[in-house]
Design brief:
Length: 183
C-alpha cells in the first residue's frame, strides 16, 4: 500500500470516529480545556478556524479571546494559509471547501494557532484533509517566529500509528474533551 493509500485509509477510519464523537456533543467540555490552555499562553494573536462538517468547534473560545483573532483563508493549491481578522459580527462569505471566511479584514500572522484535524498521533502527529495547507503554514510561521500549534479534536480522533511524511508538521499540544496532551 502506498503512503497516499495509507493516508486515505487512515482518514476514512478517522472520519467515522469523528462523526460518532461529534454526535456525543462534547464541544463545550473540550472548549473548557482549550480556554485553560490559552489563558496560560500570555496572550498574542490567535488564529482558529470556522468548523466544517463534524469538526469540533473552537468558536466560543475564539469569541472570548481578548486579543486579535483570525481565521484561515486558502490562497490556492500548493500555497500556505493566510489569516484574516475575525469577529463574531464580521460579514462572512463562503470560502473554498465550504468554510466561511471574513469578507474583508486585515491579514496577520498569528502567535497561537488552533489547528483542525482528521486524526492525531500520540507524539503530536497530525493528519489533515490532504491539501498540505497547515503543514506549509506551520513551516512558514515557525521560520518567522515562535508559534504554538494546538490541535483541537475529539479524543476519539487519536490513532496510534499515523502514516507520516517528511513535510508533515507536528503539533505542540492536543486539546480534546478528555484533557490536554502537551508534547
Amino acid at each position: 500500500m502506498t503512503l497516499d493509500e495509507q493516508k486515505a485509509a487512515a482518514r476514512k477510519a478517522a472520519f467515522a470516529r469523528r462523526r460518532a464523537a461529534h454526535a456525543a456533543g462534547q464541544d463545550a467540555l473540550a472548549c473548557g480545556y482549550l480556554d485553560e490552555v490559552l489563558s496560560d499562553t500570555g496572550g498574542g494573536a490567535l488564529a482558529g478556524y470556522m468548523p466544517i462538517r463534524t469538526e469540533i468547534s473552537p468558536l466560543t473560545v475564539m469569541a472570548a479571546w481578548t486579543g486579535r483573532v483570525g481565521v484561515p483563508v486558502i490562497q490556492g493549491a500548493g500555497e500556505r494559509l493566510l489569516f484574516r481578522e475575525w469577529t463574531e459580527t464580521c460579514e462572512m462569505v463562503e470560502g473554498p471547501f465550504g468554510a466561511a471566511i471574513p469578507a474583508s479584514g486585515q491579514e496577520f500572522d498569528p502567535d497561537i494557532l488552533i489547528v483542525p484535524l482528521v486524526a492525531f498521533g500520540p507524539g503530536g502527529q497530525r493528519l489533515g484533509y490532504g491539501g498540505g495547507f497547515y503543514d506549509r503554514t506551520l513551516e512558514y510561521l515557525r521560520a518567522q517566529k515562535p508559534i504554538t500549534a494546538i490541535g483541537f479534536a475529539y479524543d476519539a480522533q487519536m490513532a496510534a500509528d499515523l502514516p507520516q511524511e517528511a513535510t508533515d508538521q507536528p503539533l505542540d499540544m492536543i486539546v480534546t474533551e478528555a484533557g490536554v496532551k502537551r508534547l
